[in-house]
Amino acid sequence: MGTFVTLAEVLEARGSPLEEDEVWLNSMSFVLLSGPGNMCSVLSPGSMLLSASGNLAFKSCARSGDLGSFTAPEVQDGHAASNRTASEKMVVYSLGMTLYWSVDYQLPQNQPIQLSGKLNNLLLSMCEDTVQRRADLVTVLETCDQHIKTAQLPPPEKLIKQLVEDVFRDSVSSPTFPFVYEMLILTLIHKVSALQMCFFLRDSSPNSLWTIN
């Protein structure tokens, strides 16, 4: 599958929220991967994994950090999913809140989120507190698929690869990155050279005892 980064790491590296087309494509990709048995009911920006090969995955269901904002109200109330539809709607809520978080990332408080009415309505339907009124996975998938075809957006895999590449490019361009690695390399070279010199002196003087510090 390749090297993975989280959605949170993607946004941290770029320092700005996802754009609308990126939200549509990510929604499509994550919905295709979603379903009972494939994931837990609570997703978050830190549990969504994007691969350099264009694939997606989810971290295990181990709870870490504050997930309350991404947890469906019925899950917070301690209600277990009674059927497949109920389970899927828990996932839909969590995915919707995660995507809302990604479009609001580091925006000033007085700056509104820039979304089209269509996408905003979709996310609102995904984040509906009332289970009966909340969109299901099929509705989300069909809405995303229709928009992606109409807008002639690129394949989701292409976007995912680009997002991951941007993270690694940002790491390499970081001012501390080359300095740290240069120091590590110089230290290793120094130690290897010292060891080679000690062994050379030991071999050239068989009657002498040498101690390598």
From TrEMBL:
UniProt domain KIND: residue ranges: 5-183
Keywords recorded for this protein, A-Z: Repeat
PANTHER family assigned: FERM AND PDZ DOMAIN CONTAINING 2, TYROSINE-PROTEIN PHOSPHATASE NON-RECEPTOR TYPE 13
Presence of keyword Repeat: yes
Official protein name in the record: KIND domain-containing protein
Domain of life of the source: Eukaryota
InterPro entries associated with the record: KIND_dom (IPR011019), NonRcpt_TyrProt_Phosphatase (IPR052074)
